[in-house]
Write a structure and sequence with these properties.
Blueprint (H helix, E strand, L loop, with lengths): L2 E8 L7 E7 L6 E11 L1 H8 L9 E2 L4 E8 L11 E4 L40 E3 L2 E2 L1 E2 L9 E5 L3 E4 L5 H6 L3 H12 L7 E5 L5 H10 L4 E5 L3 H9 L4 E3 L2 H11 L5 E6 L9 H7 E9 L14 H6 L3 E4 L7 H13 L9 E5 L4 H9 L5 E5 L2
Parallel strand pairs: 4-9, 12-13, 12-15, 13-14, 15-16, 16-17, 18-19
Antiparallel strand pairs: 1-2, 1-4, 2-7, 3-5, 3-10, 3-19, 5-6, 6-11, 7-8
Helix pairs in contact: 3-4, 6-7
The structure holds zinc ion (2 copies).
């Protein structure tokens, strides 16, 4: 019996989300049906709305951060059963490709199928999600702004049942990406100076990751005052409202050393931010670019002389360069022990029907993380 569900859908870039009835096929081989509990409202969905992230297929079901309960499994699914609680990973982890088998699940080859219309478990023309007569695509093969999800087993990570659904949702994208940017990608060490540029839902967790890794100074840079205050609660030692303000203060603050790691996480990264961010980076230091820029932007300001003469590195990262199947349970276990803060990240809760209000609040700088609560 196909399942009918309600989902927040985009019909094109630069439009509002619309709530639509979506019909989901029965789970096929390797597929799982999940009843959603909480979906995180990540900035990446806003990138699709604004057209910074161009996608090939509309209509498009939004959302790629979430938690829920398994209600049905298809043939051949062996890691999950009905009643299991799951976190959704926007990067699938097949476990078999070259990248998965060498501890780099965030680069899983299945990621190439993230924006295909058909499910990664199905061939071309094997339709699984429909709105009326039209086939619907899903964000990162998930589409968590939906009461029910039909997804590949590769996109789900089983979690312990006593954990709150908010926490399980948050670690699936924003927390893992920010925390991993500091811990895995920048490899922050005890005593380091670290700057995080932009402390929204991802950057705030880079602050948290840098502090947990033992950074001596964690400098949070954001124009929004309440986000700077939040950053101080999450482990920042100093805050500034702009890169320019930080550039004046950080030389004296760090006794001339500057920052061993700089993590660039504004809402949208642009090419003109790279050189000022490198200006905060120490000799031999690392600039990690975590935020998403416009897909069509192909140039950045970069002083190549100082890049080489000061032995600096620039690194990109996806999912904080972590492994969803290891990092999601690890982050939740740190939350359980009280070392990782997650409850403090949720600033506002919304019903599915209020998704546009949630994104307006994000644009207005009111949210560190808004969530859709399906309960
Ligand atoms: Zn995200
Ligand atoms: Zn893989």
């Amino acid at each position: 019996m196909p399942t009918t569900t309600r989902s927040a859908v985009l019909w094109n870039h630069n439009e509002d989300w619309k709530i639509e009835e979506v019909v989901l096929d029965d789970p096929g081989p390797g597929e799982v049906l999940v009843e959603m509990r909480v979906a995180g409202m990540c900035h990446s969905d806003e990138h699709v709305v604004q057209g910074d992230m161009l996608i090939p297929h509309f209509p498009f079901i939004g959302g790629h951060e979430g938690s829920g309960v398994v209600t049905q499994v298809g043939p051949g699914v062996n890691s999950l059963e009905v009643g299991d609680h799951v976190s959704m990973s926007f990067i699938p982890a097949c476990g078999r490709c070259k990248y998965c088998s060498t501890g780099r699940q965030s680069l899983c080859d299945e990621g190439a199928k993230l924006f295909d219309n058909q499910m990664m478990t199905r061939g071309l023309g094997d339709v699984s999600h429909t709105i009326g007569e039209t086939e619907a695509a899903r964000f990162a093969q998930l589409g968590t702004f939906s009461e029910h999800l039909l997804v590949s087993e590769s996109s789900l990570v089983k979690v312990e049942k006593d954990l709150p659904f908010d926490a399980v949702a948050l670690v699936s994208c924003g927390v893992a990406t920010g925390w991993g940017s500091a811990v895995h990608r920048a490899k922050v060490k005890p005593g380091d100076n670290v700057a995080v540029i932009g402390v929204g839902g991802v950057g705030i967790n880079a602050v948290q990751g840098a502090a947990m890794a033992g950074a001596k100074r964690v400098i949070a840079i954001d124009p929004v005052e309440f986000k700077r205050e939040k950053a101080m609660e999450m482990g920042a030692t100093h805050t500034y409202s702009s890169i320019e303000e930080a550039a004046l203060a950080v030389p004296e603050l760090t006794w001339g050393e500057m920052c061993d790691a700089v993590i660039l996480v504004p809402g949208v990264v642009t090419g003109d931010m790279v050189e000022p961010a490198l200006g905060l980076t120490a000799k031999g230091g690392t600039l990690v670019v975590t935020a998403i820029g416009n897909m069509m932007e192909g140039s950045a300001d970069l002083n190549l002389f100082f890049l080489s003469m000061m032995n600096k590195s620039i690194k990109g990262t996806v999912f904080g360069s972590g492994n969803p199947r290891a990092d999601i349970p690890a982050l939740l276990s740190m939350y359980r022990e009280g070392t990782l803060k997650l409850d403090e990240l949720v600033t506002n809760r919304y019903k599915l029907d209020d998704v546009n209000q949630g994104y307006q609040d994000l644009r207005d700088g009111k949210n560190v993380r808004g969530v859709i609560d399906f309960s």
